[in-house]
Design a protein that fits this description.
- The structure is a single chain.
- By secondary structure, the protein is mainly α.
- The protein is built from 9 helices and 3 strands, in the order E-H-H-H-H-H-H-E-E-H-H-H.
Length: 293
């Protein structure tokens, strides 16, 4: 293939199988999420925090309503306070609403963790990242439930009903927020079968088992002419080696921009290009999939 003279240094990478095996044994997989997976995870986490923020705002409003507006006092004058049973229904509605918001946030957060998991080798971060939904849920409920039982204007029956609803919603929302089988980076060892399949694809596309990548990228490319490897990078280097070497260096698979890079690398398009691109998409989806929590 024609190679462009680039301002970047080109570094040839050889596979040191013994070193790879020792590193895998010592620290687990060096799997990294793709840029697309990280982007999707970020969007999901933003959505989770929006729901959690609404749940915490709901908690704050409920506390303000109970403590300062005192809806259960006989002298309360706002229309929905005319009957304390109505105030009880409003409180129950608040509790359920806060629970629904907390659960919605937790589900988005768990989906994000499946795309961009934490490392099991970092216990504190691993616990917090995976159980944050349950933690936020408890923060959103426990103070409010305590205030319900301490409320001097509610009678025993009202406290019992509101408290039972609050505890019930808390338990359900917390259970739904827990990651029972949390995903981890270490759950993604290098898949030798994928390496073999990618090698076949690369050889069919380029005629050789040679790919290129950068230190910060998560995928590898077809040649040093590919625009993706010529972008600015901290070490100003392009790494080249076999598909096996790329995976050993933590890359998850071949870029999805196959058609574009064939043009950039002055390579002919094979007749079965659509099938190859579909196979790459399938392999990448397998690599990015994380066990459900």
């Amino acid at each position: 293939m024609a190679e462009r003279r680039t301002t970047k240094k080109v570094v040839k990478v050889e596979v040191d199988r013994e070193a790879v095996a020792e590193e895998a044994k010592a620290s687990g997989s060096e799997w990294k999420p793709t840029a697309e997976a990280k982007s999707s995870a970020t969007g999901l986490r933003v959505g989770a925090w929006v729901f959690w923020a609404l749940a915490l705002v709901g908690e704050g409003l409920a506390i303000y309503w109970l403590v300062w507006l005192e809806p259960f006092k006989p002298t309360a004058v706002a229309p929905w306070y005319l009957d304390s049973s109505i105030a009880l229904y409003v409180l129950i509605g608040m509790l359920v609403g806060i629970g629904l918001l907390a659960v919605a946030g937790s589900q988005l957060w768990k989906k994000a963790n499946r795309l961009d998991p934490a490392k099991r080798s970092e216990p504190f971060r691993f616990f917090v990242q995976n159980q944050l939904g349950a933690i936020v849920t408890m923060v959103a409920f426990i103070p409010l439930i305590v205030l319900i039982f301490l409320n001097k204007d509610m009678d025993g029956k009202q406290k019992g009903i509101a408290g039972a609803v609050g505890i019930g919603v808390l338990v359900i929302a917390t259970i739904l927020g827990i990651s029972w089988n949390p995903p981890a980076v270490e759950d993604h060892p290098v898949d030798e079968a994928q390496v073999a399949e990618y090698t076949t694809i690369v050889e069919e596309l380029t005629g050789a088992d040679t790919v290129t990548w950068t230190a910060s990228g998560t995928v590898y490319h077809l040649c040093t002419d590919a625009s993706a490897v010529n972008r600015s990078s901290a070490d100003n280097a392009i790494y080249t080696g076999t598909v096996e070497a790329a995976h050993a260096d933590g890359k998850v698979g071949l870029t999805k921009e196959v058609t574009e890079e064939l043009g950039q690398c002055s390579l002919p398009e094979p007749a079965n290009l659509d099938e190859i691109e579909a196979q790459v998409d399938e392999l990448r989806a397998e690599a990015e999939a994380v066990p459900a929590s």
